Amino acid sequence: MGSSSSKGAEDRARRAEEAAREAVATAAKAYLLTAETNAKLVELMNDMQRIQAAHDQLEALEERINMMEEIAQQATQRAEEALQRMAEADENAREAQEEAGRAIARKDETLQFYEAGIQPADIPSEEEIQAMKNKIQYDENIFHIAIAGTSGSGKSSLINAFRGLRSTSPGAAPTGVMETTTEMARYPPSNSEHPLAWFDIPGAGTHQVSGWKYFKKQGLYAFDAIIVLFDGRFTETDITILENCSRLDIPSFIVRSKADVHIHNIIMAKQSDDEEEDEYDPRRLQQQYGAAKTQLVKQTQASVKLNLKQTELSDQRVYIISANNLRMLVKNKKPRKVIDEIELIRDVYLEALVRRASDALDSAVSDLARWEGVFYQDRFSRSQDIDVLHDWEPVL
Question: What keywords tag this UniProt record (predicted)?
Fold first, then answer.
C-alpha cells in the first residue's frame, strides 16, 4: 500500500516536472516569438516612418512641381504676350515703312508731275482713284487693260482680236472708219480661264483733249496695264500716255496696228507698171512681202526709239501686229504670216500673271509657252485649219 502511494507520487512529480519543462519551453518560445514580433513591429514602424517621410517628400515634390508648372505657365504667357507685342510692333513698323514708302512715292510722283508742269490739284487723289475703280467695276481677281491711242488707230479691232471675235460677232466692240468710241466701254472676261477685262478708251481726238488732261479725264491711272496703240505716226499723245504710265508705275505696251495694210501699201508703192502684170507670181509676192515687212519693222522700231529717247523715256519694245492674225491665234488657228502677235499675247498674259497671280493665269501662261514652241517649229506650214496651239483654251 505504501509502496503504491510512493510510486503514484513519483509519477505526479515526474509529470509535474515535465509540465514545468514544457511550460518553460513554451514560455521560451513565446518569448522568442514576442521578441521577433517586436522586432518586426519596430521594422514595420521604421518602414511606416520611411513611407511617411517619402510621402511627405512626394507631397513636397508635387508642390514644387505645381509651383514650377505655374511659373512655366506664367513665363509662357509672358513670352506669348511679348511675341504678340513684337508682332504688333513689327506690323506697325511695316505699316509705317509702307506709309513712308508711299509718302516718298507720292512726293516723287508729285515732283515728277510738277516738273512736267502738272499742278498738284490736277493729280488724282485717293478718292478719285477709288471712284474711277468703282466706275470700271474694278475686281482684284481680274487684270484690267485699257486700250488707248488716237482716233482711228484700231482700238476696237484690237479688243475684238484679243477676245477672239470678228467685228460682226455678238458682243464685239463696234468698229468703223470714223471714231466709234465716244465713251469708255468695258468688255469683261469671257470665261474664268482668261481673267482679263478690256477697256476701249476714246481717242484723244474725240474730246479735243491731249496730254495729261486726256490721261486724267479717261481715268487711265486706275488700270492695271495700258496698251498704247498707234496706226501710222507715233504721236505726242502716245508719248504723254507712256510718260504718265512711267510716273505711276503702270505697265505699258506699245503696239502698232494694221501691219497687213502697211505692208500692202509698201509693196504697192514700190511696184512699177511692169511688175503689176506679175503681181500674182507667188515667188515674187513672197519676196516683196519679206522686204516690205523688214522695212516696216525697221522704220517702226527706229521711230519709236527716237521718240522715246527725245522724251528721256526708257527704251521699250514695240509690237507690230495685224488684228486678224491676232484673232486667229487667240482662236487656236495658225495664220500664214505673223510678226509680233504671239509675243504680244505672251507678254500681256505674263504681266497679268505677275500682277494678278492665279491658277487660271498660271495655266494659261504655261500653255502659251508650249504652243509658242510648237508654232515656231511648224513655222513654214501653210495650213490655217490645224490647231497647232496645243493645250491653249480659246477665249470663247
Answer: Coiled coil, GTP-binding, Hydrolase, Nucleotide-binding
* Coil vs helix vs strand at 118: coil
Q: What is the gyration radius of the CA atoms in the chain, in angstroms? A: 48
Please indicate, yes or no, if residue 383 is contained in any of the structural domains. Answer: no
Confidence of residue 253 (pLDDT cuts 50, 70, 90): very high
CATH code at position 144: 3.40.50.300
Give pLDDT tens digits for 12-35. 888 888 888 888 888 888 888 888
pLDDT band at 2 (very low <50, low <70, confident <90, very high): low
CB 134 within 8 A of CB 141: no
Q: 229 and 332 share a domain? A: yes
Query: Whose grid coordinates read 507670181?
Result: 281
Those residues with Cβ within 8 angstroms of residue 206's Cβ, 6 or more apart along the chain or in another chain: 151, 179, 181, 182
Domain match, 80 and 149 both: no
* Residue 194 and residue 52 share a domain: no
Instruction: For residue 357, count CB atoms less than 10 angstroms from its CB and return exposed for 0-12, middle for 13-18, buried for 19 or more.
Output: exposed
- Confidence label for 331 from pLDDT (cuts 50, 70 and 90): confident
Residue pair 320/256 in contact (Cβ under 8 Å)? The answer is yes
**Is the domain of 136 the same as that of 65?**
no
Residues 155 and 45 in one domain: no
> Using 50, 70 and 90 to split pLDDT, how confident is the model at 137?
very high
- The answer to the question of residue 181 being in a domain is yes
Domain tally, the chain: 2
Out of 55-69, 159-173, 214-228, 261-275, least confident range:
261-275
Containing 255, the helix (H) or strand (E) segment is strand 252-256
Domain housing 26: 14-92
Of 248, 285, 243, 237, residue with least CA distance to 264: 285
Residues 6+ apart with CB under 8 A from 116: 212, 243, 247
Residue 111 covered by a domain: no
Verify that 245 and 323 share a domain, yes or no. Answer: yes
In a domain, 4, yes or no: no
CA 103 to chain centre: 25
